[in-house]
Amino acid sequence: MSEDFYPVILAGGRGTRFWPLSRKKRAKQLLALDGKQTMIQQTVARLLPASRGKQFWIITNDDLRPEILRQLPKLAKDQVLAEPMGRNTAPAIGLAAFILQRTNPDAVIGLFPSDHVIANPDRFREVLADGIQIAASGENIVVLGVQPTRPETGYGYIEAGSLGTADALRVRRFTEKPNAETAAEFLKAGNYYWNSGMFLWSARTLANALTEHLPKTAAVLEKIAADYGTNKFAGTFRRLYPKCENISIDYAVLEPRSAKGEEESNIFCLRADFGWNDLGSWTALHEHHATRQSPADGNLISGQGIFTLNASSNYVHAPGKFVAVVGVNDIVVVETDDALLVTTRENAQDVGKVVKYLDEKKMGKLV
Amino acid sequence: MSEDFYPVILAGGRGTRFWPLSRKKRAKQLLALDGKQTMIQQTVARLLPASRGKQFWIITNDDLRPEILRQLPKLAKDQVLAEPMGRNTAPAIGLAAFILQRTNPDAVIGLFPSDHVIANPDRFREVLADGIQIAASGENIVVLGVQPTRPETGYGYIEAGSLGTADALRVRRFTEKPNAETAAEFLKAGNYYWNSGMFLWSARTLANALTEHLPKTAAVLEKIAADYGTNKFAGTFRRLYPKCENISIDYAVLEPRSAKGEEESNIFCLRADFGWNDLGSWTALHEHHATRQSPADGNLISGQGIFTLNASSNYVHAPGKFVAVVGVNDIVVVETDDALLVTTRENAQDVGKVVKYLDEKKMGKLV
Q1: What is the ipTM score, two decimals?
Q2: How many CB atoms are closer than 10 A to CB A263?
Q3: What's this model's pTM, rounded to 2 decimal places?
Q4: C-beta separation of A112 from A200 below 8 A
Q5: B5-277: what CATH class?
Q6: Per-residue pLDDT of chain A (367 residues; tens, 9 = 90+)
Q7: Which residues of A touch B331 (CB under 8 A)?
Q8: Which residues contact B136 (CB under 8 A, 6 or more apart)?
Q9: In chain A, which residues fall in CATH 3.90.550.10?
Q10: For A349, which residue in chain B has the nearest alpha carbon?
Q11: Which residues of A touch B334 (CB under 8 A)?
Q12: B348 to chain A: which residues are within 8 Å by CB?
């Protein structure tokens, strides 16, 4: 695979929907929600064979950086950048683009979330190799799109058009999160894909796109990049990065670019048929494990001993405790040393609101 | 009130429906489910003014006796008898009858559960005083009956007949726990009362009734009573008590006696209009507290900080933890150091089955 592929892993999110397990200094990507490795360890392990060597960055914040370095002891410290202030995805990936543009503008940059599950890493790397090849040619942008299996309202969608190069479909447009009715139409239409948040471009393509669509931020990033590799970098980064606009790459570049039309925009969608799951909530985690373990009653209970009676489709996390579940369905209970969450499979997406409340009340120990 | 009133408090039950809070050595009656005092402390405090001095016994078992003595330090040790083997209510109350018959056959014995709530202790003692008076006359038996407020299928019912002496109604018959249809009929009929398990008789009446209806057990109890007050008592009690039949006083005496007919049987029902609640389950406890505290959303949550969102009528006990309840109704969650119970208000009566399972699996630490 290309020597000139640079993955950028975004690991600054909090994953508040996994409270009380996720905390400010132990965000979702630092939890082992699926197997023994944490989500970020899995992400790095998945990308290492594709990036050969250590050509990649993790972008996070000061709260999470120490634990990331602890979980990934083989990383060099300067591979894990802490944003002085969260600025969403456009500045994060843009910085990588402007740094590489100076020395290696043909290098392909990939943007990857750090907290998703991919069931088939080999297939992931096959798709990635295809994507890198497409991104390396001309001004192409590649997005990985997931075939929808339900009318999900929590994701953005990609509307695909004609077949472009190789297996890639030309992207007709990016859409915001739809309402339920629209999501159902998308599902039925068959040419809509979930936006996985994984993108590929050459450094040049991305830097140019940012200069075109986000000139102020591009200028700031260019200044920061100019100090990369010098002892001024840390200070410049801290000082200037907060001046970047707080905006996603989707909104800043992909949506306006796709407005140029299917042929002009050069955005391609590769189908992410490698068992992708963003584990967006306790419910998604429950379903992910239930699919793999297929318990007859749909219960997934971690505890020191378990008793169930007339109970189905519950998710209970209480390691170290004997757990009894009696006459209850579709409930989510998660316990930690200092907190207890009780919710339902249907309402688990609202768990982030607990964290919002705790933030507001300045109950810092609990977030 | 009568110098010759001897309450007998039954405190040998396990109260398994309050698992995981209730345990073999910390049964329901030893928990402070309502206020700061434990149930048995409340029971004793309620009866002390009626019994003047220390004319009463607590009957329990070896598992619970140490904690009972600890919770009631003013009791003499010989007031707390540990049955060598649980034999249900007939032998327990019968032993008191045969002991008192030897020295004070006119004394009135009262049988009281140790784990019920009584909202109005003053009114309780008024009813009690009436009952003692009725029980002291002739061969009368007094039962305290609770006006039903719902078609409860978990209690036995008393069918009342004509007005007897004072406020007391003659008892027509005792019924087993009814099915839902019958319970609804009882509620509608208006002359059915819940059997509270509180009874009053003279020692002579009770001893005679046992001799008539349960002759084998009566003979055993008479032998044990003969050694009371001597240093042989403890040994005789341990050796002979297990020979008693394992039977309730309702089934052994009250049901056959009531079969003699309303006039012949001399069983009277006094209305227990003093805010009785047996707190039979987590749901009953929830309702008891909700009635008194009237939270707008019906949630009763004990924790170190609480957040609720779209949640109503939940009962959560997790002292020391921050508790978040999101989008869930009618759920019961109880947490202890070593166990977590998740159930519903509707199914909390099945919690005893958890303890049955733990007993069967010999998971002794958890029961």
Answers
A1: 0.90
A2: 10
A3: 0.90
A4: no
A5: alpha beta
A6: 445 899 999 999 988 999 999 999 999 999 999 989 999 999 999 999 988 767 889 999 999 999 999 999 999 998 999 999 999 999 999 999 999 999 999 999 999 999 999 999 999 999 999 999 999 998 999 999 999 999 999 899 999 998 887 789 999 999 989 999 999 999 999 999 999 999 999 999 999 999 999 999 999 999 999 999 999 999 999 999 999 999 999 999 999 999 888 888 899 999 999 999 999 999 999 999 998 888 999 999 999 999 999 999 999 999 999 999 999 999 999 999 999 999 999 999 999 999 999 999 999 899 9
A7: 328, 331, 342
A8: B2, B4, B106, B108, B202
A9: 5-277
A10: B326
A11: none
A12: 326
